[in-house]
Amino acid sequence: MEIGKLNEWNPWWEDIRLIQGLKGKPRPSYESLVNSINIREITIITGVRRSGKSTLMYQMIDSLLNRKIDPKQILFVNLEDKKLVNDTLDDIYENYRENMNPDKKAYIFLDEIHRRDGWESWIRKKYDLKTDNKFVISGSCSYLLKKEYSMLLTGRNLTFEIFPLSFDEYLLFNGLNINKNNLKKGILLEKTKINLLGHFKEYLTLGGFPEIVLKQQNYKIKVLEQYFDDILYKDIVDRYNLNAQKTKDFALFLITNFTRVISLRNVRESLKLSYDTIRDYLSYYKEAFLFFAVDHFSYSFKEQKTLASKIYCIDNGLRNAVSFRFSKDEGKLAENLVLVELKRREKEVYYWKNKGEIDFVVKNKNQKLTAINVFYGDEIDKREIKGLLDFKEKFKSRVSELVLLTKDTEKEEGRIRFIPLWKWLLEKS
Asked: What domain range includes position 382?
């Protein structure tokens, strides 16, 4: 291969100042990821397409350049580049070593590595041979986290899953830094709160993809539509050689019915798909981080897996851009926001339904349960309270906390903590 194919991905070889246009805004919650450039273990970055994985890689490169690391010691490659489609990982590595950096330590960034079959064996070999390399790899598919891959790299990697912006990050991107101590004490200027709630309304409907937050208003929906298509076609259709229209139709069905219990039977009747096809497609969507499936809570594994799952979408803006019903379902959008935040906080999450209903049952590390209901309206429905109390009655001492997330109601009543959704999102887990 020609070294020129790599030049365009590595502008710092010519001028280190060019990194400034690539590194984006810092995300403090991923500081440990950026700092992992300093350890030998392989850094694996995974998450939905356009969530900011490449930008975080550029921030790692920026930190190296700030430490006066020779720019030619840093190699970045996006493996989706069509110019590189016929080049193996060995081709790329050997060409770089021969032409740019024959003997010094190399910092090698391989973006969208899942585009190369056998990448896990290749990188393990390089690591085990103790070559003087630091590898940072990324992929838009969750199979980077699958057991078979993680076993190959056991003890050799640190893995970080990247999400679209949290509400806290969203505010920072918009220049609003909330004092968490004052927030906890209930000290918030009225002007600040009005500004914050305005931002929250937009975050609720347009989501947190980094580039969308910074994009002009009149382009946001169009770009989100393109994101949706890119996820479907690049991360699902192309990879698994699927029918494009069928893949999109099923995804639109799910995204329109987000926050609902989705049974295989209902899908089969609605879309005329076989059970095997439905299961396969659901796994593809989940691998691409487009949807999350939340199982019913039960201490019986059989019961848990027998009952249908609830489906959630990775981002409200993505849902609203392609759904047939745009952004009027504030209650569902609020519930979806909570699920994504719980996943961001790495919580083990279920739903529960009996006589009452619990939107989210969180199994904490101490095995205690937190029950969360979401009601985004002006007058709280008593059924939400009853559901929480019924859950407490059934599971008794196993339940450590009952939470009702509201539009703007904050109080403690009985055993239930009422807290505005926007405030809960700003709390640290």
From this structure: 168-426
Determine phi and psi for 427, rounding to 5 degrees.
-75, 150
Strands annotated E in 250-376: 261-262, 291-294, 309-313, 348-353, 357-363, 369-374
Q: What is the pLDDT of residues 354-399, one digit of tens each?
A: 888 999 999 999 999 999 999 998 889 999 999 999 999 999 999 9
Is there a contact between 37 and 63 (Cβ–Cβ < 8 Å)? yes
Same domain, 130 and 274: no
Residue with tokens 């300093």: 38
In terms of domains, do 229 and 283 share one?
Answer: yes
Q: Angle at Cα 160 formed by Cα 120 and Cα 174, nearest 5°? A: 140
In terms of Cα–Cα distance, which of 88, 48, 84 is closest to 207?
Answer: 48
Distance of CA 228 to the CA centre of its chain: 14
In a shared domain, residues 262 and 245: yes
Are the beta carbons of 259 and 336 closer than 8 angstroms?
A: yes
Instruction: Give pLDDT tens digits for 409-421.
Output: 999 998 999 999 9
Kindly report the number of other CB atoms within 10 A of residue 240's CB atom. 13
CA–CA distance, 96 with 102 (Å, rounded to integer): 8
Question: In angstroms, rounded to a whole number, what is the distance separating the alpha carbons of residues 41 and 38?
Answer: 9
Quickly list H helices, 153-189. 167-173, 180-185
Cα distances (Å, whole numbers) of residue 204 to 165, 249, 328, 333, 340: 12, 25, 11, 7, 12
Q: What is the mean pLDDT of residues 81-109?
A: 95
Strand partners, 372: 360, 403
Q: In whole angstroms, what is the distance from residue 60 CA to residue 66 CA?
A: 10
* Whether residue 149 sits in one domain with residue 189: no
